[in-house]
Amino acid sequence: MHAYRSHTCGDLKAADAGTTVRLSGWVHRVRDHGGVLFVDLRDHYGMTQVLADSDSPAFAAMERLRAETVIRIDGRVKLRDASLVNPKLPTGEIEVYATEVEVLGPADELPLPVFGDQDYPEETRLAYRFLDLRRDSLHNNIMLRSKVVRSIRNRMWDQNFTEFQTPIITASSPEGARDFLVPSRLHPGKFYALPQAPQQFKQLIMVAGFDKYFQIAPCFRDEDPRADRSPTDFYQLDLEMSFVEQEDVFATIQPVIQGLFEEFGGGRPVDTDWPRIPYADSLLKYGTDKPDLRNPIEMQVVSEHFRGSGFGIFAKLLEQEGTQVRAIPAPTGGSRKFADRMNAFAQAQGLPGMGYIIWRKAEDGTTEAAGPIAKALGVEKTEAIRQQLNLAEGDAAFFLGGRPDQFEAVAGRARTEIGRELGLTQENQFKFAWIVDFPMYEKTDDGKIDFSHNPFSMPQGGMEALNGDPLDVLGYQYDLACNGYELISGAIRNHKPEIMFKAFELAGYPASEVEKRFGGMVKAFRYGAPPHGGCAAGIDRIVMLLADEQNIREVIMFPMNQRAEDLMMGAPSEPTNEQMRDLRLRTLPKE
Length: 591
Hints:
Elements: E1 20-32, E2 36-43, E3 46-53, H1 59-63, E4 70-79, E5 94-105, H2 122-127, H3 129-132, H4 136-158, E6 162-163, E7 181-183, E8 191-193, H5 199-207, E9 212-220, E10 233-242, H6 246-264, E11 276-278, H7 279-286, E12 300-301, H8 303-306, H9 312-317, E13 324-330, H10 336-348, E14 355-361, E15 367-370, H11 372-377, H12 379-389, E16 396-402, H13 404-421, E17 432-436, E18 441-443, E19 449-451, H14 462-466, E20 477-482, E21 485-492, H15 497-506, H16 511-517, H17 519-525, E22 532-538, H18 539-546, H19 577-583
Parallel strand pairs: 3-5, 6-9, 11-17
Antiparallel strand pairs: 1-2, 1-4, 2-3, 4-5, 7-8, 9-10, 10-22, 12-13, 13-16, 14-15, 14-16, 17-20, 18-19, 20-21, 21-22
Organism: Paracoccus hibiscisoli
EC number: 6.1.1.23
Domain Aminoacyl-transfer RNA synthetases class-II family profile: 144-559
C-alpha cells in the first residue's frame, strides 16, 4: 500500500464497504460520543468520517488529536446506518473504522478556526493566509478561479488565438497609474519598471505578424486599494488581433465572457444582449462609466423646468455656464420617510442634501406633487417633470444640480442606493454593456490637456480630428461593464506614427520624448504595421462576480492588505546595506 494513502478523502463510496484503506489529511473536527470518537478527516478532495471505539488500537492516539493536525489512518470501510447517512457529503454513505493512526504533522493552537465560516479580522486572516485558505469558502473560490482560467485558455485556443508570454522587467509606460520601479545593478542610476500591462509588447507582436495573441498576464500598478482592486498586482486576459475594427473585437470576446458566466455563474441568468452606450450617455443616465443595468433607473436632465422658476437655488445655479439639473426617478419611493433617508444618504456623501418631489393622491382624487420644490415650482412645472420622467402616484424624483463633473459621481451612487432600497435592482443575474466613444483627452486640475484613457488608441477621425479642440476628440476606446464593475478595457490602436506623434503632442509630449519613451514601438510602426486592436479582461474581478463576493481579496490566493502589505511574508521589507551598496542607492530619512 502507498505510504500515505490508497484513496483521497473524497473517493470512498458504498461500493468500497469492507475494504481496507489508508487515508491522509487534516483533522477538521473531533467529536466524542461517549466512548466513540469521530474524526472528520479533510483533504483537497473532500471529507471522510473516521471513527474509533475503545476496542480500536487507534483510540488512544485519536484522543490526543488536535484540530488541523495532519494524520495518516489505516482502517476498514463500513456502511453507515440508513438513518446516519449524510447526503451533503459524497462520502456520506460510509465511514472508516480506524485501526492505526500516525501523526504526520502536529498542529499548534490555531490563531483562527478553520472549521466553520466565523468572521475573523482580515489582518489575522491575511497573516495566517495558509490557514484561511483551508476554509471551505475560500478554498472553493480559489478552485473556481483556477477553473475559470483554464476555461479562458480553452476558449481562446478554440478561436485560433496563440498564447505568448511578454517580459516582466521592462521600461516605464504611461498607463494611468504609478509604476513599480526596479533599480538596475548593472546600470547604476537607471531603473526598470514592472509592466502595468503588456500594452506595447502585444502591439509589437501584431507588427511582427502574429495575427491573434493572448496571455493570462500579470500586471503591476502602484494604486490605492479598493474593494474591487488590488493595490499591487492583478491578472488579466490580455488579447490583441490584427486587421480588425471595434465590432470585430466585440464579436470575439463576447462569447468568451458570456460563456464563462454561463458555465460558472451558478445558473444565474446571463444577459446576451450587450448594448453599446456612449460614454457621455452613460454618465448622464447612470452617473458612471460602469453602470449596473440590473437597476432600471435612468437619470434625465430637467434643467428647463427650473430655469427662471420659483425654486431660487436651482434657478440661480442655472445662470452659470456649464450647469444643469438632473432628476433621479424613484418609482414607488413616494414617502416622506424614504425622502428623509435619501437626504441623509446625500449628506453622508458630503452634499447638503437632495431636493425631491413626491407624487400622491389629492383629496379630489387626482395626483398632486408635494414637497418644498413642488410648492416653489407650481402645478404646471411639476406635472411637466412627472410626464417627462413617466412617474405616477406613489412615486418620487430626487434632484441634483451644478456642474455635471462635480455631482455625477454622487448622483450615480444615489441612483444605486435608490434602486437597492426600493427593490428595483434585479439581483442574481448578470447584465453587460459596452461603453464606447470615450474622450481621448481631459483637462487636468491645473488646466493642462492629458490623456483620459489609453494613450495608444486611435482617435475617431484620425489626424483630421486632432486638428480641432482636443476635448472634442473621441477615441476608439471601449469598456465592458457588468453589474456595476468594469470587466474589460480596450481599444483600436493608433498604428500610424504621424498620428501617434500628434496625439502625444496634444498631451504635452514632444516628438523627442515619444521617441525616447516609446522608441521601439515608433520604430516598428515605420516598417509596416497592420491595423490592430484588442482588450484586457480583469480575471480577479470576473471571479469576484462569479463567486458573489464583495471584496477582491476573497478570490486572490495571497493578497495584500489595504496598506499594500503582505502580512504573511513581511513585505515590503527594508533592504540590507549590502543590497543598497550593490545598487548604489541610499534612502532618505523618514520625515
